[in-house]
Design brief:
The structure is a single chain. The chain has helices at residues 10-21, 40-43, 58-67, 83-93, 105-121, 145-159, 210-223, 232-235; strands at 2-6, 25-30, 48-51, 71-74, 96-99, 128-135, 176-181, 187-194, 199-206, 228-230. It has a six-stranded parallel sheet, sandwiched between helices. It has a four-stranded mixed sheet with strand order 7-6-8-9, with helices on one face. With 236 residues, it is α/β, with parallel strands linked by helices. The radius of gyration is 19 Å and the shape is elongated.
């Protein structure tokens, strides 16, 4: 698999290492210093691009790849307002887009458990729901994309039941999300149901950035012969 890496920070470098370990080649690396080199000409022959940059640049990067008919795995969060347009572009141009707010296999299992827990807890309106997330001090968006996905998952889980029992969770914006930015923390997420008498917590902690990078590379391997829009649900 011939790859391009867009964003050569900590995640980009970890993805590069894993790609090489798995026998893939990195043909193009784009960062701030050579951003102008992200062109259709330079993307020719690339099987999959890995886009991990910033909320301000992600949509432009993804659009450039898709307009060239390319395939892109993006894990940048904070640009969801433009995601639907990029998904449509992927279909129109015959390219492929794989977006996830978090590529950790463990986190994606947490997403599924979170929905199921919301179903089970919905009848018990005496529990208050809180999502808490902690990341390193360089993460630009808050709350994290993962925390937002958890909030949306709670709504989806509750909607599987007939009617709303717990009126406090009628939409994701009403679920409290507490964000922390500390040191070098790769990512900690928890969903807590708290009553006057007890609390129930679902929690995931990433101890190494490699967990995220490996998931992204696996997503790229999955995407290498595909078109259209894909997610972790498709991969798993």
């Amino acid at each position: 698999m011939k790859c391009a890496i867009i964003g050569h920070g900590k995640m980009g470098r970890e993805i590069e290492r894993i790609l090489q370990q798995r026998g893939h080649s990195v043909e193009l690396v784009i960062d701030e210093a050579n951003a102008a080199e992200l062109t259709a000409q330079n993307l020719a022959g690339i099987d999959v691009c890995f886009e991990f940059t910033t909320p301000d640049t992600a949509a432009h990067n993804v659009r450039t790849v898709l307009e060239a008919g390319g395939r892109v795995v993006s894990g940048t969060t904070g640009w969801l307002a433009e995601l639907a347009a990029m998904q449509q572009l992927a279909v129109e141009r015959g390219g492929a887009l794989f977006y996830a707010s978090n590529f950790s296999i463990g986190v994606n299992m947490m997403f599924r458990l979170n929905k199921r827990m919301a179903e089970l807890m919905n009848p018990y309106a005496n529990y208050e729901i809180t999502i808490e997330e902690t990341h390193h001090i360089w993460k630009k968006d808050a709350p994290s994309g993962t925390a937002i996905t958890l909030a949306e998952g709670i709504i989806e889980g509750v909607e599987r039941k007939s009617g709303w029992v717990n009126s406090a969770t009628k939409d994701a914006s009403q679920i409290a999300i507490i964000s922390h930015r500390e040191g070098m923390v790769p990512g900690i997420h928890s969903v807590t149901y708290t009553s006057e008498d007890d609390y129930l917590e679902l929690k995931h902690s990433i101890t190494n950035r490699r967990a995220l990078a490996m998931g992204a590379v696996i997503a790229g391997e999955y995407l290498a012969d595909k078109q259209g829009v894909h997610t972790m649900d498709d991969l798993l």
